[in-house]
């Protein structure tokens, strides 16, 4: 379908990871949900000039259910219930995380939120920009891509895929004209469902056959890739494993927390985005699990709350207890920094070893 050498698809918010995976024989896919339109233009232009003609794709968020923030997006006192504002602000105040400088606070928050795209309308604007570039794939990470989008992409020779956490979601993607489906087990980082990869992958493979399926959720090693292929998948979709690389966008302090984490430190919570999202455990996610905590707001309001009232303060001073980042349960295997190329080659080497081991068992 894409003329790639190895069936490894790499989701990343970092342009360097996208380029390095594609140059190593896989296919990089750039996540656009944390970019302004202006930044997206710069990132795609940079990718085009560095990827040496290799194929790459983009990933968008077009959720089926969400709450419109509208023009209130930058007015927290009108947008959020007082209970929620007091909870987040009080949490950080009590922990000694300093507030933003009053003279600069509004500008800092506005700049941060300008790079948040969550609604279908925001994603549609980003897609218009992306389709001006030689992308080969569009992936929708939340919900089924609209039929109009699929038709527009196909008219330009661009393939379309979508993530699915249940067979019924995969069937909806197939009905809407997707070219393949990404079956995402609950082990995955970011937005995910509740069914494990081992159970989910073969169910979705059977549900949409003969449509190709990629296995996602808990994939970062060659043996996990071998399992996906054995269960009927045509390849794998990986996101978390690239966070440990030199090329990753993750700040050193968050990388250090990941290297010290175990698999159960990747928690599934609605506290960050309003939808079930697996992220690195921190004081913020823990606070929402305690009695008396407010119920997280619907998406994207909870996401805007975290970005504007939490993340901007936390990352400005690198407050260690509150630092978090979406990551899957593979984080338990992420103990030291590596390069993108080494990750790809190590996965393929371990895949070959697994294949040889299985072959020897049946000789």
UniProtKB/TrEMBL annotation:
This protein's source sits in the domain of life called: Bacteria
Q: Which UniProt keywords apply?
A: Flavoprotein, FMN, Monooxygenase, Oxidoreductase
Could you tell me one molecular function GO term of this UniProt entry? nitronate monooxygenase activity
InterPro entries with a match to the protein in the record: Aldolase_TIM (IPR013785), NMO (IPR004136)
Q: Which parts of the chain span the membrane according to its record?
A: none
UniProt protein name: Nitronate monooxygenase
What organism does this protein naturally occur in?
Vineibacter terrae
């Amino acid at each position: 379908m894409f003329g790639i050498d190895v069936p490894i698809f790499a989701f990343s918010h970092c342009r360097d990871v996208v380029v390095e995976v594609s140059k190593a024989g896989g296919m990089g896919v750039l996540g656009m949900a944390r970019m302004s339109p202006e930044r997206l233009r710069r990132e795609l232009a940079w990718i085009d000039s560095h990827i040496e003609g290799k194929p790459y794709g983009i990933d968008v968020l077009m959720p089926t259910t969400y709450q419109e923030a509208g023009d209130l997006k930058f007015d927290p006192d009108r947008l959020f219930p007082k209970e929620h504002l007091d909870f987040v602000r009080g949490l950080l105040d009590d922990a000694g995380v300093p507030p933003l400088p009053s003279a600069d606070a509004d500008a800092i928050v506005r700049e941060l939120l300008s790079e948040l795209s969550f609604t279908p309308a925001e994603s549609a604007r980003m897609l218009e920009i992306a389709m001006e570039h030689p992308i080969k794939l569009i992936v929708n990470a939340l919900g089924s891509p609209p039929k109009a989008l699929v038709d527009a992409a196909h008219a330009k020779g661009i393939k379309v895929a979508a993530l699915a956490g249940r067979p019924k979601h995969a069937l909806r993607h197939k009905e809407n004209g997707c070219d393949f489906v990404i079956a995402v087990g609950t082990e995955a980082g970011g937005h995910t469902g509740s069914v494990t990869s081992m159970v989910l992958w073969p169910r979705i493979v059977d549900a949409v056959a003969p449509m190709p399926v990629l296995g996602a959720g808990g994939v970062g090693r060659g043996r996990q890739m071998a399992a996906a292929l054995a269960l009927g998948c045509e390849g794998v979709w990986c996101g978390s494993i690239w966070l440990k690389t030199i090329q990753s966008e993750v700040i050193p302090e968050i990388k250090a927390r990941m290297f010290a984490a175990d698999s159960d430190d990747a928690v599934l919570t609605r506290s960050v985005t309003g939808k079930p999202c697996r992220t690195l455990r921190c004081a913020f996610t823990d606070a929402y699990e305690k009695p008396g905590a407010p119920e997280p707001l619907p998406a994207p309001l909870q996401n805007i709350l975290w970005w504007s009232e939490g993340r901007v303060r936390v990352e400005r001073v690198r407050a260690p207890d509150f630092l978090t980042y979406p990551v899957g349960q593979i984080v338990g295997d992420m103990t030291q920094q590596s390069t993108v190329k080494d990750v790809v080659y190590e996965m393929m080497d371990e895949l070959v070893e697994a294949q040889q081991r299985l072959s020897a068992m049946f000789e």
